[in-house]
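Exam revision sheet. Question 4 asks you to relate a sequence to its structure. Input first:
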Amino acid sequence: MAPEPRSVPETFAFACGDCGHSWEATFQVMFFTDPLDASGLTTQEYVDEAGRAIRSPLADAVCSECGGRRVNVLEAGHAEHTRHAEPEPRTRHKHRLHLPHRSPERSD
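Answer key, structure tokens:
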């Protein structure tokens, strides 16, 4: 019979680089050691707040507000600081072609 995996709670702060939304989430990090593996290597798995096994939130975070994948992972407690430091959400703007001004004296 395999021993019960060890688990450690970890909280991360996330900030979306697309819309500016920030949040925190706590995960259980489960550590497994294969008793048949002589090397004693340990693997880990993340479990979200709903109890689902997920890929590492550090590599696969998605913004719940805009679905963006430009998510920065921060230390716990930094999400609120990011929210106050982040400017208003970026809006898409129209790009315009900027040409040099012509002088009435020049006849190019």
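Marking note for examiners. Residues 6-34+41-85 form one domain.
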